[in-house]
């Protein structure tokens, strides 16, 4: 989550939102930067998150509402 939040802060906005969800022994972290007009990052953030052992991760841009979204899905084990 720290990696996603740090990336969202670099968008230059005054606030970010963090959303957490769990399902079937997986945790989803979603960070919104609330800065419109930003294009999703290149592969660097995704590679770094994948190296930390996440199951899946990604970025996209929502021009209508929340700006850039970054998310990571983590296996909680068990």
Task: Give a quick account of the main beta sheet: strands, pairing sense, barrel closure.
Answer: 4 strands, antiparallel
How far the N terminus sits from the C terminus, by CA atoms, comes to 21 Å
Helix content: 10-25%
Low confidence ranges: none
What general outline do the C-alpha atoms trace? globular
Radius of gyration: 12 Å
Keywords:
2 helices; alpha+beta; four-stranded antiparallel β-sheet; 22% helix; 4 strands; 78 residues
Describe it.
This protein is an alpha+beta fold and 78 residues long. Helices cover 22% and strands 38% of the residues. The chain has 2 helices and 4 strands; from the N terminus they run αββαββ. The chain has helices at residues 2-9, 43-51; strands at 17-23, 26-32, 56-62, 67-75. Strands 1-2-4-3 form a 4-stranded antiparallel β-sheet, covered by helices on one side. The mean pLDDT is 79.
Describe the protein's topology.
Blueprint: H1 2-9, E1 17-23, E2 26-32, H2 43-51, E3 56-62, E4 67-75
Antiparallel strand pairs: 1-2, 2-4, 3-4
Could you give a short description of this structure?
With 78 residues, the protein is α+β, with helices and mostly antiparallel strands.
